[in-house]
């Protein structure tokens, strides 16, 4: 049996700051469940849009979100959200309609409250799946979801560089607008949490960022 402590790594940052690629690499290196909370907000938004709910209709969103049955399906090392038994396809959750609506939906306290326990519950999912810990990425992981995480990071990069990265991935995404909405909202705004390690990824490649974070994590683990 693995008697080493369960490790929680929190990575926050703005759109296209490098969170997902970094989290995936750390997940493989340390055998951590990769939890992309942005994909959760995106999946919920996609289901609301399917039902014809407008992103600016808080009462309707609140009513619908309360009725969703949320589960988790692990694929490889990643946790995917099931809504009423379905994993919403990637093309749909990363499409232009969701890009345009997700930050409005995610700004609502009722939505954040509905996802809070679900996100914390990923610790149990990771333990049951035999992972050594989890690496969770989002906007409020080190501040709200797991403020006591052993390792908390905040990734940032110049807006022009982030726009370039997102354009390379294809698709339509007004990341500056989402960042502005995410940073200015009242509920869990995007910000570097006190005590987190801030990393500027503008001029650093993925390998360098992963090496830096891995070193800190290994130090924390005493390896
Ligand atoms: O991949 P990208 O950085 O573009 O965004 P994402 O991580 O997929 O998150 C999509 C949106 O979900 C963000 O712009 C936020 O509005 C919201 N979100 C949030 O509010 N809190 C989180 N923990 C994660 C995402």
**CA distance, first residue to last residue:** 18 Å
Query: What is the count of DSSP helices, taking H or I runs of 4+ residues?
Result: 11
**Shape category:** globular
Count of spatially separate domains: 1
Radius of gyration: 17 Å
Total strands: 8
Order of helices and strands: EHEHHEEEHHHHEHEHHEH
Percent strand: 15-25%
- What is the correct CATH architecture? 3-Layer(aba) Sandwich
CATH topology: Rossmann fold
- The CATH superfamily label reads P-loop containing nucleotide triphosphate hydrolases
Classified by CATH, the class is Alpha Beta
For the biggest sheet, the summary is: 8 strands, mixed
Q: Kindly state the percentage of residues in helix.
A: 40-55%
Question: What is the typical, i.e. mean, pLDDT?
Answer: 94
